Amino acid sequence: MASYLLRRVLYGILVLVGVNLLTFLLFFTISTPDDMARLNIGGKYISQQQIDDWKVQHGYDKPLIWNPRESGTRKVTDTVFWERSVRLFVLDFGSADTGRDIGHEIATRIGPSIALQIPVFALTIFVSIVFSMAMVFFRGTRLDFWGVVLTVVLLSISSLFYIIAGQFLFSKLMRVVPISGFADGWGLVKFLSLPILISLVSRLGYDARLYRAMFLEELSKDYVRTARAKGLTEQVVLFKHVLRNALIPVITNVFTIFPVLFLGSVVFESFFGIPGLGSYTIEAIGQQDFAIVRAMVFLGAILYVVGFVLADVAYTIADPRVRLA
Fold first, then answer.
1. Per-residue confidence (pLDDT) for residue 324, from 0 to 100
2. Any bridge partners for residue 95, and if so which?
3. Burial 232-270, CB ≥16 within 10 A → b, else e
4. Distances in Å between the alpha carbon of 35 and those of 19, 22, 77, 223, 282?
5. How many helices (H) and strands (E) does the chain have?
6. pLDDT score, position 65
7. Cβ partners under 8 Å of residue 162, min gap 6
8. Amino acid 194: pLDDT
9. What residue segments make up the domains of the chain, in order of their start?
10. What DSSP string runs through 168-223?
11. What is the tens place of the pLDDT at every residue in 251-281?
């Protein structure tokens, strides 16, 4: 078990190194610090002196990878690569191009993102599995037919439609919940109820249809026929045998959305005025603050690696044979 997890962690570290190098390549070679300066300063006529002053002010005046003017280890550490990329491995995100501390902003904004995404995460898993199991239990009936039709309709509609329709119906017409905003304490319930409901509806079609296909595939296997031959009821076959044996693909699907718990949903946070990490990223893109964008890309990579490591742990619990793979 320990060696299995160690291999997965080492794979994850290699992924992070690759993401870090690729991000640095994209931001500092294809888009040079001079380009960043021009984008941030704005205007048609920008002098080289203005560009140089901006680079000095934001720490982009140093060599990218190797500093021949320094001695010893400072030849490597006194570079843009070390200060802007290597330090990300110890979660030192540095300062934004606007001067704000990125680490402080992340710590402040991660709470609203989690408050939105944890209920969505739990409800989506529960409702999708229950709904798909109900369709499988009543397969071949009208309930199954109309359930499939409903899932196809749900996954065919953009989440933007659900957001706009939900805000118009529940906020403008019925005035049940605020159209957008955020509050601390129990006051956040009225602000998060609508985005949680819409997030659940927008994901239900895809997840329920996927789980239904998984469960139907398991029903065609030999162990199901053996269980039925022993006289087990359909409920026991579905919930004790089929559900357990279909957990591996379910776990994979569940943990792919793990980073969203922390990074937040960009679309939902923007439309509902939730001050989370998703809206923070959108604001940084709009302001062309590449320091924040780099930090969020690397943080997202970390969370994806953590999510897949947790998925590997869950695999070993659902099926101990995975440890031998």
1. 52
2. 101
3. eeeeebbeebbbebbbeebbebbbebbbbbbbbbbbbbb
4. 22, 18, 23, 62, 20
5. 17, 0
6. 86
7. 198, 201, 202
8. 93
9. 2-90, 108-324
10. IIIIIIS--S-SS---SGGGHHHHHHHHHHHHHHHHHHHHHHHHHHHHHHHHTSHH
11. 877 777 777 766 767 888 888 989 988 888 8
For the segment 45-88, what is each residue's pLDDT rounded down to a tens digit? 788 888 888 888 887 888 888 888 888 888 888 888 888 889 99
Strand, helix or coil at 63? coil
CATH number assigned to the domain covering 108-324? 1.10.3720.10
**Three-class secondary structure of residue 101 per DSSP:** strand
Name the packing angle between helices 277-286 and 290-318 (round to 10°).
150
- Indicate if the pLDDT at residue 6 is higher than 70: yes
**Residue found under tokens 């709904």:** 131
For residue 127, the model assigns a pLDDT of: 94
Count the neighbouring beta carbons within 10 Å of the beta carbon of residue 68.
7
pLDDT at res. 80 = 85
Separation between Cα atoms, residue 13 and residue 315, nearest integer Å: 20
For the chain, the average pLDDT equals 86
Checking phi first, is residue 181 left (phi over 0); if not, alpha (psi -120 to 50) or beta? left
pLDDT computed for residue 325 by the predictor: 53
Burial 94-125 (b: 16+ CB within 10 A, else e): bebbeeeebeebbeebbebbbbbbebbbebbb
Query: What is the SS3 assignment for 303?
Result: helix
Give every CB contact of residue 19 below 8 A, 6+ residues apart in sequence.
297, 298, 301
Beta bridge partner(s), residue 101: 95
In b/e form, how buried is each residue of 139-162, taking b as 16+ CB within 10 angstroms?
beeeebeebeebbeebbeeebeeb
Spatial separation of the C-alpha atoms in residues 278 and 48, rounded to whole Å: 35
Model confidence at 156, in pLDDT bands (50, 70, 90)? Answer: very high
